Amino acid sequence: MERKQIISEFMEIAERPFIYLKNWKTQTGKKILGYFCTNTPEEIIQAAGFLPVRLLGSKESISLAAKHLQSYSCSLVQSSLESALRGDLNFLDGTVFPHTCDSIQRLSDIWAENLGFPFHWDLVLPVKLHTESARIYLIQELHRFRQGLQEFTGCPISDEDLRSSIVLANANRSFLRELYRIKNRNANLFSAAEFSAIVKTATLWPKDGHNAKLEWLLSWAEQSHPVANAGVRLFIAGSVCDQFPLFNLFDTCGVSIVGDDLCTGWRYFSADVSVTGNPIEALADRLIRKVPCPCKYNPGLDRGTDLLQRVEQSHAQGVVFLLLKFCDPHAFDYPYLKKRLDERNIPSLLLEIEPGGLPLGAIETRLQAFVETLES
């Protein structure tokens, strides 16, 4: 086994996830449950015997979904519905819609009305996370989700099943964090696109198999000779981004990505679940103590303060915001985060992105100009 072989496998699966998942289901005969948002408790889905798969849309042009959605719906919602209506997601046995933004909640209604997946679940997570009543409600909601999966499968989900699932997911997050630490110290070990593929495949590959690949890759990375980071050190922030052509632009511009605040990056694997006590309560507590995304509110964990600390710890020279087109929560969040960066004289650049049809030429021009400004 070689680094090139493993990275090639990560990239192939990340770029063609639907093909991989259809083949996996044919070969194993096991069920697959799709979900939106990194706040979805994969551990419960996994303990129920499903493969949990994060839905990130596709790069296909929008035609069928346009009949059901407003043109200003975010591209994640539009492209995911397009994939489902085209039949590209027929390998799914069900879908979980967590309470995030208005667009995802309304997508759930359209999805249920127009698609015939056997299992459909609205996971109504609380918006405010800092009160005791929110914790009580969240625990009850996770119990309800567990019960719904048990009724659908006809099989109980024991606490021991949940703990085993938590241990497996924690190991995956731990491997990712360690690779992340090594990469940010020695950015030339992995390109931006390669590391994005490593993280993306963690959301659609069985954890035991993914852990084995990560463990080998981590061993290789730890033995690699340190190479000084070349180019401008940038930190990227935003919501959902798995656009490999965009990540390739960072490498083309000679940039070192030394940290991120993406829900398809650091926010996915930043915190573990306690393996002691009641497993449902432990899952709830992980969601509560995570630094919240713009869809959640916890005054004790300020996003601006956390972003500043992580940017400064990474010694980044600037921050690039990757804003998914028509993503209202992150759009409202951006002015506050930019203000906090401006107060510390940290330069930033805003790039609006969407699946398919990325204006790569224009983006490259703006990114290169930003890099040249930082170099000067």
- What is the beta-strand fraction? 5-15%
* N-to-C span: 43 Å
Which structural class should the secondary elements be placed in? alpha/beta
User: How many helical stretches?
Assistant: 15
Radius of gyration: 20 Å
Mean pLDDT: 93
Order of helices and strands: HHEHEHEHEHHHHEHEHHHEHEH
Number of strands: 8
Q: Which consecutive residue ranges, at least 5 long each, have pLDDT under 50?
A: none
Global outline: globular
Helical coverage, percent range: 40-55%
Account of the 3D structure:
By secondary structure, this protein is an alpha/beta fold. Helices cover 53% and strands 12% of the residues. It is built from 15 helices and eight strands. The protein has a four-stranded parallel β-sheet with strand order 2-1-3-4, sandwiched between helices. Strands 6-5-7-8 form a four-stranded parallel β-sheet, with helices on both faces. The protein is globular. The N and C termini lie far apart (43 Å). The model has no long low-confidence stretch (mean pLDDT 93).
